[in-house]
Design goal:
It is an enzyme of class 3 (hydrolase). This protein is α/β, with parallel strands linked by helices. Helix content is 50%, strand content 14%.
């Protein structure tokens, strides 16, 4: 077990024992996260739905099936990324998470991001987008990446529509597939940036 995997499991245990977390009472399961703690990419949705609550895994219903198709369209699979939400217990009747609920889960989500140290974060829906890009509308910025500083790490954030919205609108579904094409391009951009940084470090060491 890697150090990151160990730390991620510890976070999950802490959440399971945290009786103060909202939405816990009416939920069947904590829907923590799914995927590889060593991943370069984290996908962050909004909150668990019915099937996620039943199975304790994010994105396993119809929206999850579409997410799997979107991942496959850019040669990714769930085993190579990490998927989670901004709240980890199901809101009643799948309602929007309230500000107090977002605040309660925020320290845990922040810790997950801090441990994994992704190069890319893909936000799925407006609530996860607002965590990184407050004050913008998803219809204007979807698919447009932005580089920002997060806990001393440079990350690329790509806001996208939630897959559930793609199930309700063929136009949004089409836009999701188009936006997902940005992911390999951003991956290549991060690799080139790392190569430049490594080259700069080598040059600096030679000068010393």
């Amino acid at each position: 077990m890697s150090e990151k995997e160990k730390l991620i499991r510890e976070i999950k245990s802490q959440m399971l024992s945290d009786k103060s977390l909202p939405l816990r009472k009416g939920a069947h399961n904590l829907v923590f996260g799914d995927g590889d703690p060593e991943a370069e990419i984290i996908f962050i949705g909004e909150g668990p739905g019915y099937w996620e609550d039943q199975k304790g895994t994010p994105f396993v219903g119809n929206a999850g099936a579409l997410l799997n198709q979107l991942l496959a369209s850019v040669n990714l699979n769930r085993e190579n990324v990490f998927i989670t939400n901004v709240v980890h217990y199901r809101p009643p009747e799948n309602r929007d998470p309230e500000p107090s609920e977002l605040d309660a889960f925020r320290p845990y989500l922040d810790r997950i991001i801090e441990i994994i140290k992704p190069k890319i974060i893909v936000t799925l829906g407006r609530f996860s987008m607002a965590k990184f890009l407050p004050g913008v509308t998803i219809s204007r910025v979807h698919g447009k990446e932005k580089q920002l500083k997060w806990e001393d790490n440079e990350i690329w954030v790509i806001p996208m529509y939630h897959p559930a919205a793609g199930l309700r609108s063929t136009d949004i579904k089409r836009q999701l597939f188009e936006d997902f094409k940005r992911i390999p391009e951003i991956q290549e951009k991060t690799r080139k940036s790392e190569e430049v940084n490594q080259g700069t470090k080598v040059q600096q060491m030679k000068l010393v």
